Amino acid sequence: MSKTNPGNFFEDFSLGQELVHATPRTVTEGDVALYCALYGSRFAVQSAASMAMAIGYEDAPLDDLLVFHVVFGKTVPDVSLNAVANLGYARGRMGVPVYAGDTLRTVSRVIGLKENSNGKTGVVYVNSVGMNQNDEVVADYCRWVMVNKRDTSLPAPDPEVPDLPDRVAPEDLYTPDGLDMSGYDTTLAGSPHLWEDYAVGEKIDHRDGMTIEDAEHMMATRLWQNTAKVHFNQFEQAKGRFGKRLIYGGHVISLARALSFNGLGNAFRLAAINAGAHCNPTFAGDTIHAWSEVLETSSLPDRDDLGALRLRTVATKDLPCADFPYKGEDGKYLPNVVLDLDYWALIPRKG
Amino acid sequence: MSKTNPGNFFEDFSLGQELVHATPRTVTEGDVALYCALYGSRFAVQSAASMAMAIGYEDAPLDDLLVFHVVFGKTVPDVSLNAVANLGYARGRMGVPVYAGDTLRTVSRVIGLKENSNGKTGVVYVNSVGMNQNDEVVADYCRWVMVNKRDTSLPAPDPEVPDLPDRVAPEDLYTPDGLDMSGYDTTLAGSPHLWEDYAVGEKIDHRDGMTIEDAEHMMATRLWQNTAKVHFNQFEQAKGRFGKRLIYGGHVISLARALSFNGLGNAFRLAAINAGAHCNPTFAGDTIHAWSEVLETSSLPDRDDLGALRLRTVATKDLPCADFPYKGEDGKYLPNVVLDLDYWALIPRKG
Amino acid sequence: MSKTNPGNFFEDFSLGQELVHATPRTVTEGDVALYCALYGSRFAVQSAASMAMAIGYEDAPLDDLLVFHVVFGKTVPDVSLNAVANLGYARGRMGVPVYAGDTLRTVSRVIGLKENSNGKTGVVYVNSVGMNQNDEVVADYCRWVMVNKRDTSLPAPDPEVPDLPDRVAPEDLYTPDGLDMSGYDTTLAGSPHLWEDYAVGEKIDHRDGMTIEDAEHMMATRLWQNTAKVHFNQFEQAKGRFGKRLIYGGHVISLARALSFNGLGNAFRLAAINAGAHCNPTFAGDTIHAWSEVLETSSLPDRDDLGALRLRTVATKDLPCADFPYKGEDGKYLPNVVLDLDYWALIPRKG
Question: In angstroms, what separates the C-alpha of C319 from chain A's closest C-alpha?
């Protein structure tokens, strides 16, 4: 028997199956510095212990997306090594803050299965839960991927498609314990705009652009111990459809989030991912721009110092976003649109 | 009103104005490792806790230029986002040592303003002060930049050009408290040459060369949270004068300083920047070489174990430095000279 | 006298000579994160404090090869700056675990000298010992390099070739104190295969491929403070035989070891390097694949929970390893084979 991991094929998954993923990972200040070097993030709460402690954190928390990528990366060897496409995300909630020194691991459960009519592939829905060393949840999300069958002669399982919400309800957003925004300093945070300043329908061009290099996205993707082969092997990719290494979609999410600082500088915590699509592939040499639209604003239970913004952040390649490029008249994403992310962010309210 | 930062234009600055810059940053061992990975620095006091503690530091201090870049990076969104040129530095003094875990922030004051005769741009002089979490000064320097006017019809302000010294006086150099060089080990430091071994006028070719990659300078510049657009956006730069991303001048300073170890291995602390010019632009693919000249040697008040060398370190691109390339007969920098840095370094004296 | 380091030439070495190498280095969590970003290593004991502490380590130890590269890097300025070729390794034993915060340094002794018949070069054999801040040995290995003579008119020294073993004896492998494998979790480690599952002669194709970028290998090599010029200076290399920067052989070793996780996921400690050859040069753009053969299996004295595998790991460039490419009919390495490493790894035994 081969000792290498062949990954799971469609018929290897069963409804309710639990997948205990390998390779727990102690995240450290080294990861924090690399995250800054790779994306240039400037959200002050993650950048400075002083800013975090001023509002009740015990230290600077790790960037929410750094946590998401580590939790996600663990699922790849079991869930998506034979994936044809990463189809979607839903009901993603970030949990307790993660600090340097915490150890993260991930467990997934299969919550849906549906074979495609071609009999060659199927869609697998998983709910993945990332936990720290105290078994506290740090991230909890669903995603679905299209996976190859190994043996196409096998019968299809009973189709089961989970009922996933369009968005996390604002009352279900997790607010870190002990937060008190009265100590928040907008000058040091770099933006005067608070929750009340954002209106539904408002669109913001984040203006700046960032070009991606192969060395960068590979270092990032390895840092998350994400083993998806298409990101690393130019020898193999050269023979494929694009001729190039594909960039991990999460790399683009992190770039877009970092770019969104320019216009959303106080939206310090990404609290939930409602939905996400990697609309078109991204390659080294592409320059990423981003814009955001405010989809909802919501107060939070028992809080008058903190509110939530539901945002759509769209990233493009080689296309500035002054006119908010999104979909064409046919309802399809424009070819230069690479990311459509729907999420909740927490932001201080006026005093 | 736009929520993105347009940066300040010339008419937005006023004499005496205080700029409290955003994004305090907790620097860590992660930054130290990245600094080593990016520049290959080998000064032993910054490399090993044992070497630093042997001479009275409480731990290995961060590289002085790492501190400078973080302090400098904070000023960019307010001072130089609309800058046409970074014209000069003066009176830069490094302060208390910075250790992993310290949180740095920067405040600047406008100390000079002079509109150019074309009425389209002006020169802004600022004094920027970086501080740690205890409000101790870690770096204090002046720089001046040429900034665009937004509205060229506005009248020019009264010109005010600050009187800046040619060099920091040696008696004003800050020596970290408690230093005692008797525990310094030249063998482990990698060089036998001490203060007395260097003579005014002596020139040293540092010999080694280092080629810069786009991934490297972008990671560095993001690590300092420096947001100057020309370093990151190839899509935009492709249309410009050079067709390429410009490299942050500080990246070249750090490379030149790291190269200078070969010949100045005991000059362990960069204590002051007297002047600096980024003479020509640097791009990915350029190979940096460097040479240094001893401009002055100075004893330090009340110290017989430590002296100061005033050095000019010149960096070139794609030009080895065996014959010390500098300026042409016309007094202008040769086209391959990219950096002319005048600074003070501290170095142990003979016992 | 020049203040720059010319490196040692063949006639500068003498039998029994001790070389106290410069630049002690405090290794940190920053190095650990960079190691993960550069190689994507997934061995669980190094990845997570929880996994390490479950088997008796006090914390997650640094990757053995990270330790080796730091120890090795220190020898370059004294041993191999004028080396023509890195000829071999032998009797390499890893010692006490290294943790973030330890300070490493290296001392070498010249154990052999043999001038080549051409009178222009000679072979220098050194035994290098890396130690931590408590003078405990962390790595102890021999290597031999071909070094240029400065003055070819000098007489040859009496030839002395040390008697080096083919392999470290299993009873000489160092097992970290206090290890108890009963707490080892194969599910979280990502592989079910233990010592008893591997048979002598078994070959494993590690399947995955990883393309190397110039930014990556230069960052790695600088991180180890390895100053060999051929890795960094494209301006100079462009004139040479290959026209490109050569990649540090240790970078390929680390990539091959990280790739070998897929098939050897529980071989958590690289305990000894028996022999190693960098068979062909590697350049940026090359995609590395690897395969391994089990050369020996050995129990360890007084341990029924831990065994040793002697492995040959072979890395290739731009050549997948399904048919285990190695040497041609002429007994020479195939042109795409870049590494042949013979080493011992520790792996848990069945309960």
Answer: 8
Question: Under CATH, to which class is B190-351 assigned?
Answer: alpha beta
**Nearest residue in C to A81, CA atom:** C208
Determine whether the interchain pair B233/A216 forms a contact, defined as Cβ–Cβ distance below 8 Å. no
Topology given in CATH for the domain delimited by A1-150: Thiol Ester Dehydrase; Chain A (3.10.129)
Considering chain B, tell me which residue range(s) the CATH 3.10.129.10 domain(s) occupy: 8-150, 190-351
Asked if A47 lies within 8 A of B26 by C-beta distance, the reply is yes
How many CA atoms, within 13 angstroms, populate the side-chain half-sphere of residue C176? 29
ipTM of this model? 0.97
In sequence order, the β-bridge partners of residue A277 are A340
Tell me which architecture the domain covering A166-174+190-351 has in CATH: Roll (3.10)
Q: Which residue is it, tokens 């234009």?
A: B9
pTM for the predicted model, two decimal places: 0.98
User: Could you read off the pLDDT of B92-133 as tens digits, one per residue?
Assistant: 999 999 999 999 999 999 999 999 999 999 999 999 999 999
Strand (E) or helix (H) holding A25: strand A25-26
CATH 3.10.129.10 region(s) of chain C? Answer: 1-151, 191-351
Q: Which of C26, C29, C257 to mutate to test the interface with A (most CBs of A within 10 A)?
A: C29
Check whether domain C1-151 has CATH 1.10.132.60, yes or no = no
CATH homologous superfamily of B8-150? Hotdog Thioesterase (3.10.129.10)
Distance, CA of A40 to CA of B219 (rounded, Å): 8
Q: How far apart are CA B284 and CA C228, in angstroms?
A: 21
Query: C191-351, what's its fold?
Result: Thiol Ester Dehydrase; Chain A (3.10.129)
Tokens of A321: 């976003």
As a whole number of angstroms, the distance between CA B24 and CA B74 comes to 8
- Residue of B31, B77, B214 with shortest CB distance to A190: B77
Tell me the mean pLDDT per 10 residues along chain C, length 351: 89 97 98 98 98 98 98 96 89 98 98 96 97 98 96 95 97 95 98 98 98 98 95 96 96 98 98 97 98 98 96 98 98 98 98 71
CB contact under 8 A, C214 and B213: yes
Choose the mutation target among B23, B70, B132 for the interface with A, i.e. most A CBs under 10 Å.
Answer: B23
